[in-house]
Amino acid sequence: MMLQASRSSYVCWKCALQRATSDVIVSRSTTRLLPRTKHPLWRRTLATVKHPASSNGFSDAQLRATEEEEERRKKLPIRERLRLWDEEHQDEAKTILSDLADVGELSNTITRPQNVTMATFDVTSPLFDGDELGDLRAEDANIKPGDMVELSSDSTRRPMLALCLGRFNGYEHYYTSSGKWFTGLGVKTLFVVHGFVDPAELEPVINELPTTATPLEAMNALQDLGHNPSRSTGANLLRKMLQFSQEAEAVYQANAGTLDASSAFIGDPVKHRYLTLHEIAELLLPKSYQKDGKFKPQSLYAVHRALLQDEVFFRPLRQTGHKRSYLFEVSPLSEVRIIQRAESLVREYLEKDTRIPNSKQGGQSPVSDFVKKARKLIDQSRKTRQWTKSGIIGPSTAKAPASAPAAHEWSATDTELLQFMELWACYQKFPSYSRLQCYGAAILRALDRYRDAETLSASTGWTFLQEVGWIPSWEIPARYSIRFPGVQIKRGGGYVRPYFGNLDRHLKRDTLAPMRKTWTDLTAYCIDSESTMDIDDAVSLERTSNPNQYWIHIHVADPASSINAETPVAKYAELIPQTIYLPGHFERMLPGSLSQDRFSLAPDRPCLTFSALVDKDGIILDHKITPGILKDVVYMTSDDVATAIEDRREDPVVGGAEMSLGPIPEPKPPQRQMTRPQDLNNHQKDELALLSKLGRAIQAHRLSRGATPFFQPRPEAQAYFDHLPQHERDNFLSSHGDPAIRIAYSSRAGTDLVENSMRLAGETAAQWCHERGIPIPFRSQPHAAQNAAVVQQYTRDVFYPLLRAGIRPDDHQWRQLRALIGSDEITTTAGPHFTLGVPMYTKATSPLRRFSDLIVHWQIEAALREERRRGASLVGNKDDSFLPFSREQLDRMLPMIRVRENQARALTSGDGGDQWILQALVRAWRFGEAEIPETFRFHVVHVHGKRSAQGRLDWFERPALLRVDALNDVLKMADIRVGDVYEVKLRNVNVHANQILVEALRVLEKSGDELVVAPEGDKTEMLQV
């Protein structure tokens, strides 16, 4: 990569330094030169920059000698000049970036601007939300045959269009606009045109694909050999994709003036904006492009491509699948000015401080001053914390905490440069092909403190920010990459929402007070862990005159009756619509003064009770919802309940490993009076036993409809800061010591009483609202409903038997299930939820911790008040004028709620939680803080063509990558099969990149060989794989 220099020829910065060696800050080590023979192609990472000449600091004789030598060489033939250069650099080679970079790495997008291998795929395992299957894919992830998608990634400048041919043998097949065929797993895309062609039009192309169950490695080999459907066969599809591109280009050309200056129309001076593609198109395109209030896909694609060409203003948020399109983050003008300022300063520094002749500018660059200050802090940090290549600095070796952190003397310009580094390394604002990538690397190179870094990448920049105290040594990168729209990240921990003033003053009197029933004759059992602070729910049992029928009551905290849906309290909760349980960064949805002190379930506090009349066989006979006040409340843990009723769940458990680093503190005493098994009387024990029995009877009916029996636990990390003093000075952080970390598989509750009851409450709320025409956030799986027979057969015959046998389904089986079920949808239309085995469902039992539950409560309570006003039931009602949210309003709100919920779950259960586990692995592997195996079993789950194999380690099921250069002659990439098992050792662990790299030691198991039929025109070849 080259930097433009004024009034001078292009000069390689390495050569410039050879001609003009001086005492400037830029050092030889910043070149990151690689020996020719020792490094594989994937490590070709150097950039070439151009600098002007500077005469400062050299004698006239030196300058004349340099100029004469340069003039002499210019007269030599080019081959002779290259030979001389090669002799001077025999032990060094500046190499280029790889054409085939993995996720998170910089790739060669200059000579390879478009490559189908650069497409990004999702091969991650499913997440779990309590006892439900969680899926962070976009709703548009259910790509169907005939849909057209844009294939792109951070590593490609030119996107490619492709048609989905369908899913065969567990893999998705695509036909690209260049006439290529390829396969993938869960392609990630920012643009989809559903139903672009009729599936029948795909048949000629599909008929030329391999016809038998073809392993992935065989398909990769066929694609490498150029086995593609003939262009004549796909001519119709190619013409349609070309026409689409041309029509989109015509829209762009007609509106280029507006689209190229879109930031001037959309950018806010100081705040981020979050808009969908449709909303941006409404701001930029004339109304004439709309028909019936909608844009044609070609118009949207023109806007989409224009936005992604901008490297600063517009970035699609990661993990934010939106029902209609991705959510774009629009940078404020103040942030853009920081980037432009940093770019200007770095360019000025590179021109001034290389001292190349003919530079007219004098004086010291502000970057030079910044570098000197940063070096001092880095050197100070390394006295107690070792720098590593693992995207995190090492644990502290200091014997005693410092009395106070060192003073920082950062100027306003220094702070701007730090903010730029934060945007680059933390927020990862710039695509990997952006020119802006080189400015962060240039600053790191100038520091001359990262000679051992393989690349001066964002991961190295992250460790720099840790060393200077801008972020803590234990900070989680996912907090920056998975952001909440409208919420600022507080460095060091937590989040900052807009200031709404004193939220307590916006509480109103209890609107349901005249309607509340006092539950005087019932005991409500709040069953949760001792550490839980916000008690959302309780369960009780009421006998009826029929000895075979019982009312099961689920009492839920009721903040909605005192919080108006239009108040700042509601706006505050909506910004982070789900309590964040990420270790070290706990963040409540509602302020603690409200959730814990006012509405957490306790005697004499309000509740909303969801009740179901069931018989002894688990058949639901009736349901109702009642506002109430609790009197007799018993707090217990799930294990204590199981002990009291002598009933333990029999589900087989896979995974019992555990690892800890540092001093794990003793559990804190509970903040409420806990009831132990010996404290219960016989009547209470009988009630709990009967509740458990009835819950299982209800669940048996759900299982008969295809519900998932249970989900195996996953590894989780907990971090403890009790022993960790931390100081802050001038908004910079310093800490002595490191958090203790404990990794273990999430424990399943001792009894399934609670989860069965909570599902019953969700089903009851959904049925009650559906009968009355009340729009709420219903949770459904419409794709599963379309494939009901196939889903039931697969789960009954393949998937569920594995679970019951205590065998964890492999990734291929998970993908099959996800493909059949599709993603969960949040809509105002009720529909079946297959994995729960219910005809309709909503979440209603956590209004203190989940915003969508709060919406359900607002809607239900408005309906209860309306029924009281009318003196009649609303069953059959079609009016929504009395509700806080009309159906139309909710339809607009729910996509953003889904986005925010996905962000919260991805942060807690996805990358955020995984990065705590990787921090523990780095500290155990590099610094010996805990025992880990020297070698691991690596189970291959996917093969990325000729580049690498993805697999799972037998250490907390961590995903890992085995690259072609790490095979160590144990085997060849062509020999790797999905299902193979190798013995490997760690090569590197990068917390910032969320990546584990391994190298092969030996083959342990090989999957079976198969014959693949590969038709080519009129002939068929048999390929041995």
Characterize the structure shown.
The chain is an alpha+beta fold. Strands 6-5-4-3-7 form a 5-stranded antiparallel β-sheet. The protein has a 5-stranded mixed β-sheet with strand order 15-19-18-17-16, with helices on both faces. A hairpin with an 8-residue loop joins strand 3 (148-151) and strand 4 (160-168). Helix 9 crosses helix 10 (297-309), helix 14 (437-447) crosses helix 15 (458-467) and helix 23 runs antiparallel to helix 24. The longest helix has 23 residues, at 682-704. The protein starts with 12 loop residues before the first helix and ends with a strand.
Number of helices: 27
Shape: globular
Mean of residue pLDDT values: 81
**Main pleated sheet:** 5 strands, antiparallel
Strand order, biggest sheet?
Answer: 6-5-4-3-7
Unreliable stretches, pLDDT < 50, 5 or more residues?
1-56, 115-141, 319-324, 1009-1025
Q: Rg from C-alpha positions?
A: 31 Å
How many strands appear in the DSSP assignment?
Answer: 33
Amount of beta strand: 15-25%
Helix/strand layout:
Elements: H1 13-19, H2 60-75, H3 78-88, E1 127-129, E2 132-134, E3 148-151, E4 160-168, E5 171-176, E6 181-184, E7 192-193, H4 203-206, H5 216-224, H6 235-254, H7 256-260, H8 262-266, E8 273-276, H9 277-284, E9 290-291, E10 294-295, H10 297-309, E11 314-316, E12 327-330, H11 333-352, H12 366-381, H13 412-426, H14 437-447, H15 458-467, H16 478-481, E13 488-489, E14 495-496, E15 517-527, E16 537-543, E17 549-557, H17 568-575, H18 592-599, E18 606-615, E19 620-636, H19 638-644, E20 658-661, H20 682-704, E21 715-720, E22 726-729, E23 732-735, E24 740-745, H21 753-771, E25 778-780, H22 782-786, H23 788-804, H24 811-821, E26 825-827, H25 851-870, H26 887-909, H27 911-927, E27 936-944, E28 948-953, E29 959-963, E30 981-990, E31 995-1005, E32 1011-1016, E33 1019-1024
Parallel strand pairs: 15-19, 29-31
Antiparallel strand pairs: 1-2, 3-4, 3-7, 4-5, 5-6, 8-12, 9-10, 11-12, 13-14, 16-17, 17-18, 18-19, 20-24, 21-24, 22-23, 25-26, 27-28, 27-30, 28-29, 30-31, 32-33
